[in-house]
Amino acid sequence: MIDVIVVGAGPTGLTLANELGLAGVRTVVLERTLERGGQSRALNLQPRTAEVLDLRGWLEPIAEQALTTLPRGHFAGIPLDYSVFDTRFPYQVGIPQARVERFLEDRLAAYGVPVLRGHELTGFVQDADGVTATVAGPDGTTTLRAAYLVGADGGRSRVRRELGVGFPGRDGRISMVVADIVPEPHEALPTEWRLPVFDVREGPFLMPLGDGVHRFLFGAPDQTVARDAPVTADEIRTALTTGPAPHFTLREVRWASRFTDATRQAERYAAGRVLLAGDAAHIHFPAGGQGLNLGVQDAFNLGWKLAATVHGHAPRDLLDTYHTERHPVGAAVLENTRAQVVLLHPDDDVRVLRSLVSDLLTEPAANRRIAGMISGLDIRYPMPPDTPTHPVLGTRHPVPHLHDARGLLLTPSSDLTPLLTPWSDRVDHTITPPTSGTDALLLRPDGHVCWAGTSTGDGLEAALERWFGPAS
Ligand SMILES: Cc1cc2nc3c(=O)[nH]c(=O)nc-3n(C[C@H](O)[C@H](O)[C@H](O)COP(=O)(O)OP(=O)(O)OC[C@H]3O[C@@H](n4cnc5c(N)ncnc54)[C@H](O)[C@@H]3O)c2cc1C
């Protein structure tokens, strides 16, 4: 018997499968490709992603595979200072997406979660008790039955389409190429990462990925080219010699793909027993380096809620909060990437606007606002209407570890231990001095505050029930 089918072994699906495996949920990952791709694609973990990976103890082994750390973030290439935040990770971890995926896929073995490569989901039906998926694999077509199915199957999600969930937004207006290339050695080749420039008038934009391989980004000379049209070596050669020198000579193309600023978001992240996460739920221009990060954080929000639901102790409506919490976060990222696309336009009037925005972002308040958004550190989930208000409710609380993905009560004394006992199978307790201007905090498994109070424990039982289910 399977509890959850995860469709797609990208960063979102693999993160979710790890969260489910950790919680003892019987999970199967379906992946249509036979082999893991070596494409660089995303190259960064934003501070909030670093924090959530660190909560489970996964950041350190991932960071060992990193190429670099980037002390800043950026908004349309304009630097953002992350050092103003109370976080252990005020920087971006510079690591190709494929390395993050390899780590996440390899560690699934520890939970006995299989990744069925060469298995493509071709359809599904759901009923009151579960979902039956049709899967085309090496041995023909089979069916798999599970209690839930999650579509983490990328921007062209089959799951989303079969579900009939709307994907409003707009098509792309600009066409870009990303390629991992090996240029001929040249003294002007960059040896360090810099903030991205998308304007050919600045010269070719390259980033070193090690072993002579470079990430190369450029605007397609023919902006009307079809998204699926193969990228030619000639196109890359021409782009390497367009704009001001230095110009470079192409030796080898390892991988190349087109992308656009198409911007769309699923109307609903859940329909019955089927849920959507990552690019399957939202697509946007990769400005600021947020897409992978958004997907990984979707998975951290969904994993513990789905696990509690499968185990039968989830409070009513817990799974619904996945959509209510993550949809606004995705919508905000879509908006900020659209704004960045405008600022990246190579038009002289836009240059003036860009220079003004650059000036503004040197103001601490403006930097904090935009850097909080891009880093993911400003995320504050809405609390249910019946919850007493408190400034830290819904925010992230920087704790070092929640390795077992359980809740955590932080109090200055053991006074509340007896009250917590009926939930001690789901929530841990740490005696710690007050922080965040409050005596006591209750954290969810994703590190967000769901109760803030005093050592009298007013409202704590209601919060425990609200987020962790009935007392046992
Ligand atoms: C050029 C470029 C640069 C980027 N740079 C950044 C960056 O710097 N920072 C950042 O955060 N993000 C960046 N992104 C975005 C990031 O790559 C994506 O947001 C991320 O890959 C989304 O992960 P995902 O797991 O949701 O989907 P995907 O990575 O698309 O994974 C989906 C998986 O599902 C599989 N699949 C699809 N259909 C089926 C099916 N029917 N059955 C079985 N399997 C299926 C696919 O084969 C794939 O493996 C960039 C993207 C591009 C294109």
TrEMBL record:
One of its GO terms (molecular function) is oxidoreductase activity, acting on paired donors, with incorporation or reduction of molecular oxygen, NAD(P)H as one donor, and incorporation of one atom of oxygen. This is FAD-dependent oxidoreductase. It comes from the Bacteria. The keyword Flavoprotein applies. InterPro entries: FAD-bd, FAD/NAD-bd_sf, RIFMO-like. The lineage of its organism: Bacteria, Bacillati, Actinomycetota, Actinomycetes, Kitasatosporales. Residues 2-337 form the FAD-binding domain. It holds the Pfam family FAD_binding_3. PANTHER family: BINDING MONOOXYGENASE, PUTATIVE (JCVI)-RELATED (PTHR43004:SF19), TRK SYSTEM POTASSIUM UPTAKE PROTEIN (PTHR43004). Keywords: FAD, Flavoprotein.
